[in-house]
Amino acid sequence: MARKEPAADAANAGRLKQIVLTYKMTRKADKTIGLVLAGVGLGTLAVFLVIGFLIGHPVYLGILGLLLAFLATAIVFGRRAERAAFGQMEGQPGAAAAVLDNIGRGWTTTPAVAMNRSQDVVHRAVGKAGIVLVAEGNPNRVKTLLAAEKKKMARIVADVPVHDVIVGTGEGQVSLKKLRTTMLKFPRVLTGPQVTTTNDRLRAMGDLMSNMPLPKGPMPGRGGSGRSPRMPRG
What we know:
4 strands; four-stranded mixed sheet; single chain
């Protein structure tokens, strides 16, 4: 017991430190966070106290109101912190991959399955909704990347639905803060074993592409110029 208590105290201290750090980071992007949280907490408690006095149970409703005030404050704080974090990440390379990594259980994310010289990138997530390709970068250029990735996967997983999402703030794009919600809205059409099989196929496809031998040296031609030899005229 003596060993468990210091460990629990250390865990609580670490959790409190993390909350304080999150609050400070959120306040940099959301200056009104303190007033909002105070308003939610005190407002919730006040409502329950008023109801308690009206029905003759101020102590009981006061305790219940205090607990619900903490809960409401925590929920609002979590949402405001998440919104602030997305605002800071918006437009940064790899931001969508960070969101996909925290989308929840049941999804397998592979970042940067396709990329070009301009650093436009496509990430892949596999879940019960099928395959979701999430692109970051110039909308016109990433469409080419998405088309190429779909064509490559069609040879391996033609029976699995494929969705594509372009992250951004323009028309037809999905903002970073709405990416997780958009992913979870896709209809679930695969079972658990089918998801596993799909991941195995895609993983095998990646291994095949990486292990594919490439010819070395110049292409055969006249003088090693790389031009194809002409066929003799008949």
